[in-house]
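Per reviewer request, we include the raw input and output of the structure prediction for the construct analysed in the revised manuscript.
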Amino acid sequence: MKFADWTQRTRRLATGRAGRRIARGTAVAAVALAGAWLGIMLGGAVRSNVGPVELGMSAEPSWTGETVLDAHPFGTLLFDTHNAPVGLRVTLENINPDRARGFLDDPRFSADRLPALLEEELSDGVRTLIVRAAFCGLAGALVASLIVFRRPGPALAGTLVVAVAIAGTGAAAALTFRPDSVVEPKYTGLLANAPTLVGDAESIVTRFESYRVQLAKLVNNVSQLYDVVSALPVYDADPTSIRILHVSDIHLSPIAWNLIRSVTTQFKIDAIIDTGDLTDHGTGPEDKFVEEIGTFGVPYVFVRGNHDSMTTQRAVRRQKGAVVLDDSAKTVAGLRIYGLGDPRFTPDKSVSVDSNLESLGALGRSHAAKLARLPKQVDLIAVHDPTVAKGFSGAAPMILTGHSHARSTELLPSGSRLLVQGSTGGAGLRALEHDEPTPVAASVLYFDADTHRLRAWDDITLGGLGEQSVQIQRHVETEPGRTISPVPTIAPSPTGSITVTPTP
């Protein structure tokens, strides 16, 4: 055999041995990790008493890391608490009615003793879960490796891999733990239960001092729900906050009226703002649809959309409680609101809705310049098209709009917050033309009664055809008192005027 042939054969053998080692190592790690997860799932769950509530705690795989509180049958709360490939699921298994009633009857208990008690008991439960899950994971890895490989060497190696993985996951969860995530839960469940479980936005924002205090509020809310299962507690509206319901793009959908009525009642709404496209074609027969506005019992602020005609606008104005804003401002529920109707009417699609974006932006900037010269500053601006809305950047702290049928929010460079609402009507009957239905969307905005600044908002989304199952995402304004930049000086267009109506 030549030396070159011998060298090549040796390299092939070495490469083959290395490949086999990598394959064996990968197989050992895969079997051990699978056994570990099986062990954690079968034996890693624990039960712990936290205040009056008996909780079931378990670890589960999660790419993003999260904590899920399952308050069945009322719904679930999801908190973005950490970044690690493991999630914590907390299930309300039972409640001690006597102890819960004692917490509810003695307010000093919840204010002074309950936060510390809950923190201690919850910490004990989490520590027990960590120890038990780690033990069951290591045991599952060892047993699975012994069953598959039948040798102690691979079994010990697999157990070591799982030990390193558990330690790394625990370290990642501890380093990325975010206790403040408790103020921004995502709720999924029945709409009637949402305000009680999610909590009061004003209390969360202005009285939020620590994770411990908010934990006490959450347990108290759950205790109230379980203490009166047959008659859910009335949501205690906070009198110091102004609650605005933002809806848009109803498009003749009766689903929207059902949602608006439920949310207005459950969340104690002070006023409703509709940013347009209430109808589809703006015709006279569609005027009958708007008669529902007079039944809500709160002011209904309306700005015309590109699917609403002047006929539609006049029909809305005739309704009880309706406030139509078209290049005008008015004080509603304590907030100074300016509204501008959409300059286009395109129900027949003869004019592209997104045409001439530059002129739409210029329209917004022109009206913003005129608005800046008013003697009384406005708190909120409502228009239909987001392009027009961005032209008002800097003219008010909050700008509401719609049109795109997709919810989004943006903090503009001027400091103004732009909230684009989705379709509160699920885009009407036209949504049935698509494979996936358009979500039904609305938002509850919480304003400070003294500063008139936004403090928090709840994004409400219905994914199905009914109006009972709902998802709510809580958001908190991080800098409610930020400075709003002045509007750039732009010469207004020669047409149009701002009409300021007196405060009611």
